[in-house]
Amino acid sequence: MRIAVCGSIATDHLMTFPGRFADQLVGDQLHTVSLSFLVDGLQMRRGGVAANISFGMGQLGVCPILVGAVGPDFAEYRAWLDRHGVDTGSVHVSEILHTARFICTTDADHNQIGSFYTGAMSEARLIELQTVADRVGGLDLVHIGADDPEAMMRHTEECRTRGIPFAADFSQQLARMEGAEIRDLTDGADYLFSNEYEKALIESKTGWDAATVLERVGIRVTTLGARGVLIERAGEPELRVGCPEEERKADPTGVGDAFRAGFLSALARGGDIERAAQLGCMLATLVIETVGTQEYELRRESFIERFAKAYGADAADEVRGWIVTS
Question: Exposed, middle or buried by CB within 10 Å (0-12, 13-18, 19+), for 163?
């Protein structure tokens, strides 16, 4: 199954604030907020939603086709992704703009405040999916993640026109999108990914209730943080999958991307929706235990042991053959 992963490719600048953001906010002065947080540390990591998802899929032995735009400073990052099983042959390289930057501060409660500089990502709108499909011999699914908004619109419309199944996953771009844009990006999606807050925001901005959204998409996948994931399909009972037990909680950045990597990898292996959600939750657990979105190690026996503890021996036996790392 050939899966193209479209979205941002970026460098993450991750900082930690030892206090609580909530303690610094004055309710009747929010319209004039001016805050600066003295942070304890700075980590510079590889990131971007499409690159994070693709890295996770590569770790699981599925060779995803990464689709996005970067700057001429991408060479080292490209080599890293190539070594970890990602097809970077369809990445567009800008001649004038740097690769995007994500700057994020996490407080003691694991709340986050972040900013994103698009840079070369603005040129993702120049990428034609048909060219990607021709290069790799066709596409079975296109995951359309947070990216240049015009690129997201173009990729979605091209998928509809060419009959390519697609997954809608707006994440950070929901904040700047209007209802009409969200409706256009959602309608006809085979999968709709969001977290719990984004789920409510999608419904608020589109004016669609939950039932209407389910009429417009094939499968709605909502991550619920520590409570796992909710899977909904029109006319079907909802499915809830819990998370494996965490060994520690280091950094939540990239957890959602890891879930999507596991979910899409299971689909690529022919797994059903429940197994996809389980594999996504297991991979997400590895990421929350690690600082950085691509710094975790997937060790086969440990992974399967934890998977079996969370979801049972039969589920683990099915997944065992999908894990190619030692």
Answer: exposed
